[in-house]
Amino acid sequence: MFVNRREVQIQWGDCDPANIVYYPRYFAMFDDSTSTLFEVAGFSKQDLVRKYGLVGIPMVDTRSKFYIPSTYGDWITIETRIESIKRSSFEVKHNVYKGEALAIEGFETRVLVGRDPVNPDKLKSAPFPPEMVAKFTGSEIRS
């Protein structure tokens, strides 16, 4: 499994008046972490558009489990991996660590999307390119 880890320092603007991270900020961090995962794996946004004809990887479902809060100035580690890949959809998991302790588990379902070849004004799910499947999972597409 391909995994990316990134260190994030909690900023003043991430926190609510109680000085803990306002939960929607984590979802923005997860979105950045998914984009970074693709980039580090060698699939930049430019590649997604030019090479694969995609227009994006929108999120269709998300949820989190919160265990330990973070506050202004804390450093957290976000560990991101793709848990499973289907034809065009995939499951992403984010484990957020505060030191060695698991602070948050984040889950996303996303879909590769391109232009509909029949009607370019519409979007349509696109199949996962085999080289992406191999990079992220080391195996073939599961249905």
The average pLDDT score comes to 93
**CATH hierarchy: architecture:** Roll
Task: List SSEs in N-to-C order.
Answer: EHHEEEEEEEH
Into how many domains do the coordinates divide? Answer: 1
Which segments are poorly predicted (pLDDT under 50) over 5 or more consecutive residues? Answer: none
CATH class: Alpha Beta
Helix content estimate: 10-25%
* First and last CA, distance: 18 Å
Shape: elongated
> What structural class do helix, strand and pairing data support?
alpha+beta
Layout of helices and strands, plus pairs?
Blueprint: E1 3-9, H1 23-40, H2 45-50, E2 54-56, E3 59-66, E4 75-85, E5 89-98, E6 101-111, E7 113-115, E8 123-125, H3 130-137
Antiparallel strand pairs: 1-4, 2-7, 3-6, 4-5, 5-6, 7-8
GO molecular function: fatty acyl-CoA hydrolase activity
Keywords: Hydrolase
Organism: Bradyrhizobium cytisi
In short:
Keywords: Hydrolase. 22% of the residues lie in helices and 39% in strands. By secondary structure, the chain is an alpha+beta fold.
